[in-house]
Amino acid sequence: MTWPRGADERGTVTARPPSDPLIRLRDVTHRTLLVETTAASDANEVYERLRLQWGSVAPVDLEPGVPAWLVLGHDEAVGVLRDDRTFIKDPSIWHGHAENLLGPQSALHLVLPRAPKPTLADADGAKHARMRPPVDDALSQVDEARAAAITRRLCGMLIDRFEDRGRADLVAEYAAVVPFLALSELDGLEPGQAQRLQEITRAIFESGAAARERTVELLEIVTEHIAHSRRLGTRDIAGVLAVHDNFESDLERAQTLTAITLAANEALLAWIAQTLALVLSDPRFSNRVSGGRLHIDDALDEVLWRSTTNPNLMPRFATREVVIGDKLIERGAAVVVGVHAANHDPLVQSADPWDTVGNRAYLSFGAGPHRCPAPRLGRVIARIAVAELLQRLQVTLVGDPDKVEWATSPWMRFPARLPVTFPPPVSPPAPGAWPPGPAEFAH
């Protein structure tokens, strides 16, 4: 079967004559590991190498021996994201289950479960149409001014913790903490609950296959919070989800609240950390920001264009055979949309870097039914987190900027650590010391 989208004039997704050979995933023996695209010092080099070798769709391994298709072309990526009947989020149809491709210690068990979780992120069709409105309703009622005030307060609190020290890791001590605490407060969680959830979440991502055991405690906390919010009649995110009739159970509500919070946290962590890394490692960028010639929003946009926080989206699965270029996407195949590669597709990317300033035509917030539900709220949190740190501290990156170590997640791209130093705060003068205060000038 073919997948016509009327794009023949650009050579993107086309029907091919039956006589032309089609490339099948099973026939490719040497595949690039997906994590190479995110952990490389130059992600563009890896994506472009794949594009030159394979065209708009390339074979990759999610883990050694776990194959998937990686979509590199912009038009092809948009087509996959919008076609939620051909490419679905339900992993139960993935052919790898029948072939037992995942070993007992595989970290992909959470990404490729045998059955979909009852959450918006993994829903398709009518189920997704039922579960998306509650999330949109809950996020649309968030007061952006309140979200900004919460974020600013939390940023100040975190900076207070390391300001006197004169050094910090801006990933572990700042970028990884600000969004989680801000989102948790907007969810209506108490500080103690938020801290415990962050500890569990970190353990889940670090424990691979054993993570399923830790999700039990996480769901218990969130489910109880949903019920508590309903009893109190709160109007925070959890309170809106708690009373929305579109959900069939509190399990759906808890799973959805957890999923949107964790997904937003990961994306914001990467967005904040990458922006700070770019400002600290690129003098031209830093000078433009500090000199007022480039607004923080423009800096955030340049990160989404230039590097992308979520370079590879979680897999979708083909419900039928389709052809993209010379690749045969078989039913049950995992298909990963390479957002970074799509943003850098030569067919849509200008050679002039200034064309990206103020241009938000990137795919970093997704497209189609699963598009990010709260890009404005995310921007508020990221903007304040970056601005507060840059305005308050004169930070200098420790080490060679060209040797920043990137996290080994195949889905997100951010520095594994960002060690910086900065001058400690100047102690206030003792009473009576120079310079004189306003009262002394009055005399």
From TrEMBL:
Record carries keyword Heme: yes
SUPFAM superfamilies per the UniProt record, alphabetical: Cytochrome P450 (SSF48264)
Compositionally biased intervals (Basic and acidic residues): 1-11
Pfam families for this protein: p450
Annotated InterPro entries: Cyt_P450, Cyt_P450_B, Cyt_P450_CS, Cyt_P450_sf
Keywords: Heme, Iron, Metal-binding, Monooxygenase, Oxidoreductase
Keyword Oxidoreductase: yes
Region (Disordered): 1-20
Family of this protein: Belongs to the cytochrome P450 family.
Protein name, as recorded: Cytochrome P450
